[in-house]
Specification:
The complex is a heterodimer. Chain A is mainly beta. Chain A has no helices and 11 strands. In chain A, the strands form 2 sheets. In chain A, strands 2, 4, 5, 6, 9, 10 and 11 form a 7-stranded mixed sheet that branches. By secondary structure, chain B is an all-beta fold. The chains are: A mainly beta, B mainly beta.
Chain lengths: 114, 108
């Protein structure tokens, strides 16, 4: 296990198109998080799962965004009808559940919406 | 609402000089505080957490509840410390809230 992986690493799309990103967490981790990071900002929380249950969604997550973790393993984040403002780095992280436990981050998917 | 403030976007120090990266937070309860680091072309990784009271790569951070601060310190900066540093907090295992980050540049 080499850590959290994300695919694709880069995605360029035209405004209005749909995109889907995948995250594969560390295998024994039951929690999976999605964050978004724009230039000059720290990562901002989008949503997270414990096993297959989506426990929380940020107000940043508009109706165009949907995330799934169907079998409690990998997760997908889909953005429908992309807008230029969606251009950002999308980060996935995983952890065990419990207080003070480290979140391990993936390399991110950089989305550019033209 | 939980908030983390890192007042410096960029901090430049000479090699061998002391380093202090500031972090202040706002939260009424007892949060858990972390420092994450991102070296060039690498992923974000945990540097240290306040509950461990550990020193990693010569860095330490003390949680000051009175001042709601969690400043990161190192007595002698090294060139390999140049990176982006993020302070973050969580409460009862809620998702992390990050500051905007401070870029540390250590000049030879």
């Amino acid at each position: 296990d080499t850590g959290v992986s994300q695919n694709p690493r880069h995605k360029i799309t035209k405004r209005g198109q749909n995109v889907t990103f995948r995250c594969d967490p560390i295998s024994e981790h039951n929690r999976l998080y999605w964050y978004r990071q724009t230039l000059g900002q720290g990562p901002e929380f989008l949503t997270y799962f414990q096993n297959e249950a989506q426990l929380e969604k940020s107000r940043l997550l508009s109706d165009r965004f949907s995330a799934e973790r169907p079998k409690g393993s990998f997760s997908t984040l889909e953005i429908q009808r992309t807008e230029q403002g969606d251009s950002a780095m999308y980060l996935c992280a995983s952890s065990r559940s419990g207080q003070g436990l480290e979140q391990f981050f993936g390399p991110g998917t950089r989305l550019t919406v033209l | 609402a939980q908030r983390v403030t890192q007042p410096e976007k960029l901090l430049s120090v000479f090699k061998g000089a002391p380093v202090e990266l500031k972090c202040n937070y706002s939260y009424s309860g007892s949060p858990e505080l972390f420092w994450y680091v991102q070296y060039s072309r690498q992923r974000l990784q945990l540097l240290l957490r306040h509950i461990s009271r550990e020193s990693i790569k010569g860095f330490t951070a003390d949680l000051n509840k009175g001042e709601t601060s969690f400043h990161l310190k190192k007595p002698f900066a090294q060139e390999e410390d140049s990176a982006m540093y993020y302070c973050a907090l969580t409460y009862q295992s809620t998702p992390l809230v990050f500051g905007k980050g401070t870029r540390l540049s250590v000049i030879a």
